[in-house]
Design brief:
Layout (H helix, E strand, L loop, with lengths): L1 E2 L7 H4 L7 E2 L8 E7 L5 E9 L4 E4 L1 H4 L7 E5 L10 E11 L14 E6 L24 E7 L11 E9 L6 H4 L9 E6 L18 E3 L5 E8 L7 E7 L4 H8 L2
Parallel strand pairs: 1-4
Antiparallel strand pairs: 2-10, 3-4, 3-6, 4-5, 5-8, 6-7, 7-8, 9-10, 9-12, 10-11, 11-14, 12-13, 13-14
């Protein structure tokens, strides 16, 4: 049974106003994964989103995984609805974080990344497929898709996978409306604005997208989302972690 227990990891994400997404279609993003915590009463608590790298490994934020015992983490793939009764979950074997210096628990910390290894091979089909990490850094002005599940503290919580379109910004100094100060010194991070092409429902309550895969139009993985807020015209709506700087490290870890 899926649990709706409250957990707000980042105060910023609990204070956002409004949003601007639509529900993803079944099978539209087959690389999507969800990281859940199995509680003592056997309920599942959604923590973060992630991306399927191969039949053994999921990529997500370090914040979402390293603070829990691997035996308590479950991975959901192949479903756009957290509450679906026939969902298939995979138990976790190990969690590996990156890198030196090690990640520390702050919302905009560098190296906020981890690979999660499942015990049994993930079965691929039309709705479950891996995604390749792009060797190209995020491009200024490029449109990307960001997919993740909503934060369940929302008054009108939905268990369905959400999609919104974002435009990457390479000048991190423009992130100040969202993070106040300091982000321009962390080169691994980048900011995003809402795409004019995104005409999703703007009347949904606030939610966050931590761990959400940020993919290019060619369906390659360019980043993971760290924080998001409601849509505001010409302002920063999300902060993501660039994956190109970590690409070689990640593939070396999952292929050994």
């Amino acid at each position: 049974m899926y649990s709706f227990l409250p957990l707000c990891a980042f105060a910023l994400l609990c204070q956002v106003q409004g949003t601007w997404a639509r529900e993803a279609r079944e099978g539209e993003f087959p690389y999507q994964a969800a990281v859940l915590l199995r509680l003592r009463n056997d309920q599942l608590l959604y923590i973060c989103s992630g991306a399927i790298l191969n039949q053994r490994y999921i990529l997500t934020l370090a914040f979402c995984a390293i603070q829990y015992q691997p035996s308590t983490i479950n991975i959901l793939v192949g479903s756009n609805d957290l509450a679906r009764r026939n969902n298939i979950y995979y138990s976790v074997d190990t969690v590996r974080q990156f890198s030196r210096p090690k990640y520390n628990v702050t919302i905009f910390s560098r190296n906020n990344i981890a690979v999660v290894r499942v015990k049994n091979l993930i079965i691929f089909n039309q709705r479950v497929q891996p995604i390749v990490i792009s060797s190209q850094d995020v491009m200024n002005g490029q449109t990307y898709s960001l997919t993740a599940f909503r934060n369940y503290i929302d008054p009108n919580y939905s268990t369905r996978l959400q999609l919104f379109l974002v435009i990457a910004i390479q000048n991190n100094r423009q992130c100040n409306p969202l993070v106040a100060t300091g982000l321009d010194r962390v080169r691994e991070l980048f900011c995003m604005t809402a795409s004019p092409r995104d005409t999703g429902n703007e009347n949904l309550p606030p939610f966050s997208y931590q761990g959400g895969p940020i993919a290019s139009q060619s369906k390659q993985l360019s980043g993971l989302n760290i924080a998001a807020r409601g849509r505001q015209q010409d302002k920063i709506v999300a902060v993501g972690l660039r994956l190109a700087p970590y690409r070689n490290q990640i593939y070396a870890a999952i292929n050994n």
